[in-house]
Amino acid sequence: MMQTSIKVKLVTRELQTLTSGQPVSDGNGVKMTRIIGTPELNMLDPFLLLDAFETDQAQDYIGGFPDHPHRGFETVTYLLAGRMRHKDNAGHEGVIEPGGVQWMTAGKGIIHSEMPEQENGLLQGFQLWINLPASEKMQAPAYQEFPAHKIVVEHLEAGAEVRVIAGTTNNGTTGPVINPYVHPIYMDVFLPKGQQFEQAVGAEDNVFIFVINGELSVGDSMRKIGHHQMGVLRKGDQVVVTANEETRFLLAAAHPLNEPVARGGPFVMNTKAEILQAFEDFKQNKF
Ligand code: CO
pLDDT for 153-201, tens place per residue? Predict the structure, then answer.
């Protein structure tokens, strides 16, 4: 027998496209930047939407998001500053505080409100929508909620830190969120100037980076993602980024579902008929 030793070279992901999103007003007049879910970037399977909000002007957020439905996907709210109260039609209620995450599986449907629990000061955070596979869209609604102290922080060289919401770092730190459908990675990474960060990802995953503050160089080509920009990465096995200055960023990755997507406002299903059914069920108070 011949012994073969195969050493596979990891493919480092390079920057594919950059976007800065577009300003939107949603809910009751909340001003945000929509980064995924725009004409420029409709979706990045299974990521359906990414909204970033960051304002200390109360009139930009005070209206909040009064009662509205969701069906067919998950909403992930991650707050960096400020407080948001959520309340649903099944009696579930709570407050998301700075550093906390609410990972909500809307499944077959909920009606909820998301309202700022403050009348002044900074409100900063993100809402990410992650699609569910056809087989899971009509499951019972569920929540995975973690305050800041339940989000594992991995401490790296020179003061670098990784807050792991979902997925496992190269050093084996695993975040608390469970999603067996698209196996997401969702990490909040802080790098001092000059520090490098490496993260293995699935070769077929869709991967994006959003720079909260600072500037990163990506891969071997060292193309840059600047302040408040999102970079979609090319295919590959690992993400390697270097901070050109002190930088904080979100890294997200997930398996694409590769299923047809039908969208109708707060409902995301596979077919137009299922969207019409969602509107009908909502109207008939079946949520
Ligand atoms: Co909502």
Answer: 999 999 999 999 999 999 999 999 999 999 999 999 999 999 999 999 9
CA of 53 to the centre of ligand 1 (A): 14
What is the distance in A from the centroid of ligand 1 to the CA of 19?
24
Distance 113 CA to ligand 1 centre (A): 6
Exposed / middle / buried, residue 285 (Cβ in 10 Å: 0-12, 13-18, 19+): exposed
Say which amino acid occupies 218. Answer: V
Note the CATH number of domain 15-283: 2.60.120.10
pLDDT digits (tens, 9 = 90+) for 207-250: 999 999 999 999 999 999 999 999 999 999 999 999 999 999 99
Q: How far is the CA of 68 from the centre of ligand 1 (A)?
A: 6
Cα of 156 from ligand 1 centre, angstroms: 35
Kindly write down the DSSP assignment for every residue of 27-46, as one continuous string. Answer: TTTEEEEEEESSSS---BTT
Query: DSSP secondary structure string, 145-173?
Result: EE-GGGSEEEE-GGG-EEEEEESB-TT--
User: End-to-end distance of the chain based on CA atoms, in angstroms?
Assistant: 63
| Its pTM surpasses 0.70 | yes
How many other C-beta atoms lie within 10 A of the C-beta of residue 198?
13
How remote is the CA of residue 112 from the centroid of ligand 1, in Å?
Answer: 6
